[in-house]
Design goal:
By secondary structure, the chain is an alpha/beta fold. Helix content is about 30%, strand content about 20%. The strands form 6 sheets. The protein has an 8-stranded parallel barrel, surrounded by 6 helices. Strands 2-8-6-7-5-3-4 form a 7-stranded mixed beta sheet, with helices on one face. The longest helix has 19 residues, at about 10-30. The protein starts with a strand and ends with a strand. Mean pLDDT is about 95; it is low at about 1-30.
């Protein structure tokens, strides 16, 4: 539905004029030095100095220690596509780029200095050196250039949060190893340090477990996939399917390869093995783990299924087998057990569960899940691991050592932090990037998605530290995480479309202290990233033109004056007044539009990026 606009009265006119003038003033004010560099996420301290250092065609990188050499090899691989010939050296005198290990405030802090002597990145560990390199790369042209000038700068930087995460669901739709590595590259480029890999769910099991081969023979495949948005149907009887078997899994050798790839880029992978809910795919292979007889099959619907594993001894033995192999594959300290959306219908009906409640002195079936989780946690601790789960794990009671991922808003995270549990903040309201980017639910101009509306500005506005917590309680907030669920995200290109540019906002939420964040200053820095995304062939969503909204309209001489601008450097704004969809052939916006009032005209506009791709349209009804 188009927006509507109706203006009358001198006061409203002056108010609108004032809003427009303030926006124009903000857009035209001189950029701060750090803004002009276009760095995302914004570093702590940036000093831009007079002068430019020109990188030669042949570059030497000084690196001695194993960590320095690892980062140097990665930097070499990122400089060569810019047309440079790069070699490593142990002579600091001849090197144009020097990687130096010295004492710093933390393992992820770094100092970047560019001056007439060249480039030096200093950190206390490989992670800091790597992040310094990512900042340095953003000072270079996005593509090969005849000359490569780097401004003289001195940057001191460290992250605001120790957990800077992003999740990819590979259960609802499966993604090959090559794309998982590309996803890790996305994270590495913007200083994320945690990749949450959602490997199991009702619709498919994606990891090889040698002791239980039927998980990859049966649980990894569903017979078909739902067509269209599930919420458009009134009952399951109306569902339509593609009648095509779907599935896949990662071998343990592939898992090891991905883990090593991430480690080199200072990213820890957190695997998620769902239990006790979201486990129908498990029951398809091992129906004896259910509370009532099968058969079962990997689910072909989305949502929450009432069939979950029964909390009996065979189930514990099964998950202990699984977690033994998972623990050996993933060296990070956390294993995510899910714990969310586990209806207790089957447990209430089960004589075995009633016997457990009697034996353990539990007066509520919800407490059975708490007992289940604590027993799983004890096993994980025997493997040197920490338990992480969605905020539902609070409901049955958790131990002080469990970590909570707060997704149903911030309430669960606040409760957990007050109890003394560590927390990862990932509320649907701000960090679920499978939510839509258009104010019109299920807009015909957007790809099929789960629904909701999560614009860039709202993502950027998130502060992971709830004000309800004391400073001491806030120390339990490890950091934020963006999640991407893939019920309706079927291809790598669509993953990229949903991630970018919103992932850039998440990067700044995670790295930059809230007091230094300003959305108006973030936008021009973000805009400078589009050329880099193009160079990496990332299918980002082209942002709509700004200014086509009722608050930006100025009434003047019987006309509504619209001042538009594009967030994409070099992008064109194309528009129509006749209700047609704008494209490359329609009128080019070159100056403010003066649209007659009282004619019920719909103004539509799109941004056409330099790569030829278009934004979804933005529109406004002028009354």
């Amino acid at each position: 539905m188009p927006g509507t606009f109706s203006l009358s009265g001198r006061f409203v006119k002056l108010l609108a004029l004032g809003l427009l003038l303030s926006q124009l003033a903000a857009a035209q004010q001189p950029a701060t030095p750090s803004q002009g560099l276009g760095l995302v996420p914004l570093p702590r301290q940036v000093q831009v100095q007079t002068g430019t250092y020109f990188l030669p065609q042949k570059i030497s990188i000084y690196a001695k220690s194993p960590a320095e050499r690892n980062v140097a090899e990665l930097l070499k691989g990122l400089l060569e596509p810019l047309g440079k010939t790069v070699a490593l050296t142990t002579s600091s005198q001849t090197a144009q780029i020097r990687l130096v290990t010295e004492a710093m405030p933390g393992a992820e802090a770094y100092q970047l200095v560019v001056d007439k002597a060249g480039v030096q990145i200093t950190a206390s560990a490989g992670a800091g050196l790597f992040y310094g390199c990512q900042t340095f790369l953003q000072l270079l042209p996005a593509r090969p250039a005849a000359t490569t000038g780097v401004p003289h700068v001195r940057i001191m930087d460290e992250p605001a949060f120790r957990w800077r995460g992003a999740m990819l669901d590979v259960s609802r739709h499966f993604f090959p190893v090559e794309f998982v590595k590309k996803y890790i590259d996305f994270l590495a480029a913007y200083k994320f340090n945690t990749f949450h890999w959602h490997l199991t769910d009702d619709q498919g099991w994606r990891i090889e477990i040698k002791k239980h081969p039927k998980l990859t023979q049966i649980s990894a495949f569903r017979k078909q996939t739902l067509i269209g948005a599930q919420q458009q149907f009134k009952t399951p009887a109306e569902f339509k399917y593609d009648a095509t078997p779907y599935g896949g899994f990662y071998t343990q050798e592939q898992i090891k390869d991905v883990v090593a790839y991430a480690q080199k880029r200072y990213i820890t992978i957190v695997p998620e093995i769902e239990m006790p809910g979201h486990s129908v795919a498990v029951l398809a292979a091992y129906p004896e783990l259910a509370c009532r007889p099968g058969p079962y099959e990997a689910w072909t619907q989305w949502g929450v299924n009432e069939d979950i594993v029964c909390p009996t001894e065979p189930t514990f033995r099964f998950f202990e087998d699984v977690l033994t192999e998972v623990s050996a594959l993933f060296p990070g300290q956390y294993i995510h057990i899910g714990g969310d959306e586990a209806p207790k219908t089957r447990w209430k009906e089960s004589a075995a569960v009633q016997e457990i409640m009697k034996r353990e002195g539990l007066d509520d079936v919800e407490k059975v899940q708490g007992w289940f989780n604590r027993r799983i946690e004890k096993f994980l601790q025997s493997k040197g691991k920490k338990l992480l789960g969605w905020d539902e794990i609070l409901e049955g009671g958790i131990s002080p050592s469990a970590t909570v991922m707060s997704w149903r808003g911030e309430k669960g995270g606040i409760e957990a932090a007050r109890r003394g549990n560590d927390v990862v903040m990932t509320p649907t309201s701000h960090l679920y990037l499978d939510y839509g980017q258009h104010p019109q639910p299920h807009s015909p101009y957007e790809p099929l998605m789960i629904g909701g509306y999560l614009p860039l500005e709202k993502v950027y506005s998130f502060n992971p530290l709830p004000q309800e917590l004391t400073p001491e309680q806030q120390k339990h907030i490890l950091g934020p995480q963006a999640n991407l669920w893939t019920e309706y995200i079927t291809t790598p290109a669509k993953v990229e479309y949903m991630l970018f540019p919103r992932l850039l906002a998440v990067a700044e939420v995670a790295w930059t202290p809230a007091a230094r964040k300003k959305y108006a200053e973030f936008l021009p820095r973000m805009s400078q990233q589009f050329a880099r995304l193009d160079a990496r062939r990332i299918n980002y969503r082209v942002p709509e033109p700004l200014g086509l909204d009722s608050a930006s309209v100025v009434r003047q001489g019987g006309k509504a004056v619209l001042t538009l601008r594009s967030l994409v450097p070099g992008g064109q704004i194309r528009y129509t007044l006749d209700g047609k969809m704008p494209d490359e052939t329609t009128d080019l916006y070159t100056k403010p539009l003066a649209v007659p009032l009282n004619q019920q005209l719909t103004v539509r506009a799109v941004t056409v990026a330099p790569n030829g791709r278009k934004s979804p349209p933005v529109e406004l009804l002028i009354k």
